[in-house]
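Q: What residues go here?
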């Protein structure tokens, strides 16, 4: 696999404004970005082997971020993941830890923190 292919950051969020903002931020930082408006669409269209890091929104209709990640983990996908939440909750944090989420990030996102977390996740 080429280093270019491994640099893909997948953003899965149902909010078009968040997707656009994160795409702009990450592309400006030099990442290749793919965005998906739902976990269902990610499962249908994405090639997990190309993804270096997942940025998942927890609150999405049909398939929440952690539910998507659970399906990926069950399929053997070990891609590093960051989870975005509106309100932190202990149960979400526990499940995120069980699924190997690198960091739970609370909205509004601090840009520098997000970029640093992605850099750390993709460095391994």
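A:
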């Amino acid at each position: 696999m080429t280093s270019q292919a491994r640099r893909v950051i997948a953003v899965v969020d149902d909010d078009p404004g968040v997707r656009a903002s994160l795409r702009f931020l990450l592309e400006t930082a030099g990442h290749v970005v793919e965005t998906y408006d739902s976990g269902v669409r990610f499962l249908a269209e994405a090639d997990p082997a190309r993804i270096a890091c997942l940025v998942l929104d927890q609150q999405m209709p049909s398939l929440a971020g952690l539910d998507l990640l659970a399906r990926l983990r069950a399929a053997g996908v070990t891609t590093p993941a960051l989870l975005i939440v509106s309100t932190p909750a202990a149960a979400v944090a526990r499940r995120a830890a069980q699924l190997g989420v690198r960091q739970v990030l609370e909205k509004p996102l601090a840009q520098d923190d997000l970029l640093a977390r992605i850099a750390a996740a993709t460095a391994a």
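A: Context that may help when evaluating the design: The first helix runs from residue 3 to 6. The first strand starts at residue 8 and ends at 12.
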